[in-house]
Amino acid sequence: MLDFDLADLYGIENKYLKRSVRSNLDRFEGDDFMFVLTKDELSRCSFGTLNKGRGSNIKYLPFAFTELGVSMLSSVLNSKTAIRQNRNIMRAFVAMRQIVLNHYTPDEVKELQNDVYKLRQYVEYVSQLCCLT
Predict the structure, then answer these.
(1) What is residue 130's predicted lDDT score, i.e. its pLDDT?
(2) Euclidean distance between CA atoms 103 and 82, whole angstroms
(3) What is the distance in angstroms between the CA of the first residue and the CA of the last residue of the chain?
(4) Which position has the higher pLDDT, 59 or 73?
(5) 23-66: per-residue pLDDT in tens?
(6) Which of 5, 53, 65, 107 is a good FRET partner for 37, with 20 to 30 A between their CA atoms?
(7) Per-residue pLDDT for 70 more than 50?
(8) Which CA distances in Å does 53 have to 25, 57, 62, 86?
(9) Is residue 95 within 8 Å of 116, Cβ to Cβ?
(10) What secondary structure, in 3-state letters, does the chain show?
(11) Are strands 63-65 and 34-36 parallel, antiparallel or unpaired?
């Protein structure tokens, strides 16, 4: 997951998420926790295309967090919203791993997709509620 997506889920500004990570870099040592996207990788993504207008382009390369990195964020971002959202994200990672590791039948994959969809809807709903309060 990318830093700006996580910041949005946690209801904080991306600069605060990045600042917290940078001040705790020893917790994210190694590519198995987090890495920075390169300009080449960024140019191949739809969010990396340049937009017209001041302030509408990505200024700093985003952090990409693995499952371990997202889990480590809960020790860095210690708010109730961050902890709640972190639980939901970890459940989504577990569901995705189950799909890959357990050769599910097409019906079981559909059921898991539906569960992940419901979880995503719930995370977005809770995220919106947190932003309103």
Answers:
(1) 66
(2) 32
(3) 25
(4) 73
(5) 999 999 888 999 998 887 776 665 545 555 544 566 788 999 98
(6) 53
(7) yes
(8) 33, 8, 20, 34
(9) yes
(10) CEHHHHHHHHCCCHHHHHHHHHCCHHHHCCCCCEEECCHHHHHCCHHHCCCCCCCCCCCCCCEEECHHHHHHHHHHCCCHHHHHHHHHHHHHHHHHHHHHHCCCCHHHHHHHHHHHHHHHHHHHHHHHHHHHC
(11) antiparallel
Q: Which residue has the tokens 């917790």?
A: 27
Give me 6's structure tokens.
């996580």
Hey, what are 122's tokens? 């719930």
The span from the CA of 97 to the CA of 87, in Å, is: 15
Write down the domain spans for the chain: 3-132
CA-based nearest residue to 91, from 63, 65, 64, 118: 118
- What is the pLDDT at residue 25? 93
C-alpha–C-alpha distance, residues 8 and 119, integer Å: 16
The owner of tokens 């020893």 is 26
CA 17 to chain centre: 11
